[in-house]
Amino acid sequence: MSFSITTNIAYSKDNVSEAFAVTQTASASVTGYQVLTPTLGTAATQLSTATITTLGYAFMRSLVTTTQTTCTISIGTMSGTTLTPMVKLRAGEPALLRLAPGTYGAQAAAEGYRLLFNVFEE
């Protein structure tokens, strides 16, 4: 199994501007993957990676449809029931990360928010 990731970024502020495009192809030697769409609340919820032997990429996307900037989902590492956030997604925003071994979780700014969480084994 393989997949391609393409990122296009352009920005301009004050007298600084930059634009670039990067395409990366990842080849997974094992074809395992896992897709979760948990409904989250204001308490941290563990995101299971139990069926994945070797963590590869994780694609996450907020499925929140409310457009207020305060409607966020935080994603990070878990220690017991405590979440240490490393990513905060606004409504509809995606994130792509290569995961290190660990325990991961998510927490919503309000009850009933949903998250798409895909993990690809490598």
General description of the model:
This protein has strands at 2-13, 16-27, 33-36, 39-40, 45-47, 55-62, 73-79, 82-89, 94-98, 104-108, 113-121. It is mainly β. The chain has a single domain (28-121), classed as Jelly Rolls (Sandwich). The strands form 3 sheets. Strands 3, 4, 6, 9 and 11 form a 5-stranded antiparallel β-sheet that branches. The chain has a 4-stranded antiparallel β-sheet with strand order 5-10-7-8, with no helix packed on it. A hairpin with a 2-residue loop joins strand 1 and strand 2 (16-27). It starts with a strand and ends with a strand.
How would you summarize the topology of this molecule?
Blueprint: E1 2-13, E2 16-27, E3 33-36, E4 39-40, E5 45-47, E6 55-62, E7 73-79, E8 82-89, E9 94-98, E10 104-108, E11 113-121
Summarize, please.
This protein has no helices and eleven strands. It is mainly β and 122 residues long.
